[in-house]
Each structure stands twice: as C-alpha cells, then as structure tokens.
Amino acid sequence: MSKIKKLFSKIKSSCKRTWAFISKETNVTRRELRSNFKSFLIWTLALVAILAVASMEFAAFVGNTDLLESMESFAAVFRAFGVEITDLSTAEGFVSLESVYLYVPLAIYAALLGGSIVSKEERDKTAEYLFTLPVSRTKVLISKVFVGVFYNIVINICVIVATLLTYLHFSPTTAFYQFLGHLSIGLIGTQMVFLAIGMLMAAALKQYKKSGAATLGIVLGTYFLFMLIGLTDKIDFLRFFTPFKYFAAGDMLSGTYHLEYIIISIGIFISGIVGLFVFYRRRDLNI
Q1: HEC string of 201-266?
Q2: Which residue range(s) make up the domain with 216?
Q3: Within a domain: residue 6?
Q4: How distant, in Å, are the alpha carbons of 131, 136, 170 from that of 207?
Q5: Has residue 17 been placed in a domain?
Q6: Is the pLDDT of residue 212 over 60?
Q7: How far apart are CA 183 and CA 177, in angstroms?
Q8: Lowest-pLDDT range of 6-20, 79-93, 182-196
Q9: Res. 283: pLDDT tops 80
Q10: Is residue 16 part of a domain?
Q11: Burial of 10: CB neighbours in 10 Å, binned 0-12, 13-18, 19+
Q12: 216 domain-assigned
C-alpha cells in the first residue's frame, strides 16, 4: 500500500512540474500572440482591400477583347515585374498577374514580423522583466518562432479565402481553385524564407534598430533582382539568390515546383532558425 502511495505521489509531483512548464510556455506564447495581433490585423485588412479593388478591375476585363489585346502590348513591362501575361479573361490568369500585390506585401510582413518579434524586448525595454522569469531564452525563442509561423499561416489562409470569395461571383473554373491551392503553397514558402531571414538579422545585428531596415532592404533588393532576371537571361544564374523566384506565380499557375528551389528554401529556413538560437543566446541585450 505504501509503495502505491509513493507511486501516486511521484506521479502527482511529475504532473505538477509538467503543468508548470506548460503554463510558462503558454503564458509566453499568449503574450507574443497578443502583442503581434494588431499588426497582423492591419496587414490582413489592407491585403483584403487590395484584393477587393483588384476584383473590380477584373470585371472590366471579362468579355472586353479590346482591353485584353491592349494589355498584351505591355507584356514587356509586366515581365519586368516578374509577371507573365496569361489569359486575363480568366480568374486564375488575372490573379496570377496581380500576384505581385500578394508576394511582396506578404514577404515584407513575414520579414518585419520575424525581426520585430525577436528585437521587441529590447525595443520595448521588457527584456529585463522577461528574462528574470523562470523561463530560459531557448523556451522564449521557441514561443517566438511558433507565433511567427502561426501568424504567417493565418494571414496566408485569410488572403486565399478572401481571394476565393472576391472572385466567386465570376463563376471560376476548377483551374482557379487548383491555382489558389498552389498559390497558397508558393506564398507560404516565400513567407517562411523571409521570416527566417528577419529573425536571423534581428538576432545577429548588434543594434536592433538596424535590423528592420536591413531586413526590408533584403526583401526589396531580392525583388529588384527578380525583376532584372525577368528582363534579361544574361543574369539568370542569379535566380538562386532571390526567394521570389522559388515559387513564382507563373509556376504556381501551372502547378510546377522545382526541387532545387524547395531544397534551398528549406535550407534557408533551417539555417535562419538555427542562427537565431545561436546568436540570440550569445547576445548582450540592451536593457
């Protein structure tokens, strides 16, 4: 009987320790979710508004052969933005053309979220309070990575659902729904790459104030390179240096995935997260 009591006592104490650990992790995660919800909401509403305006433009293209023919004359201009002119009379063709308004904003959101979620303790002067709690830096970073991935997945879903709803009254074909599935994968792949880059920059740079500008510079710089590659084949070898090339809208429209780009994307994400833990654990926080 005494052995049974001792066993139950050990189980009870083990459960208490486990619950205390989960509570600490949950509290940090909830804190991160609350503090980043406002920016998530603003970005989501802005993207939904852009999609609504774009769907109004699409209404002008449907059945207007003259307008469609005139758009073809601007093929070189659109190619400069990394977009190929397709059948703009279809919902999937038009969305692929307008996808630049999804790829770039979501990449910026992911990169800035990654940077701010890591550096905000120094920015808001809450580092001293947070790290005096019985929670290690590793556990805090795990919560931050989780929240960063979570919000990027949620905003991705919101954008895809909003796209579906805004074009639903045009009676799209099966190809449109298939394209949205591929587009969602392409967007989230691009988002994860820039999320990892943003987190790594915030942890690696000694001055947290510079991380946001540096991360934004990387996003815009890689997109500019993406545009240049679309203009000339002479620098096509640089395509591996721009994440916007990994899951391009044209490839998503045809459902084409390149193994080398997938491997590079996974490699960048893993390297960025590993680098985050390495640099942040060595970092002297500015309190």
Answers
A1: HHHHCCCHHHHHHHHHHHHHHHHHHHHHHHHCHHHHHHHHHCHHHCCCHHHHHHCCCCHHHHHHHH
A2: 24-282
A3: no
A4: 19, 22, 50
A5: no
A6: yes
A7: 10
A8: 6-20
A9: no
A10: no
A11: exposed
A12: yes
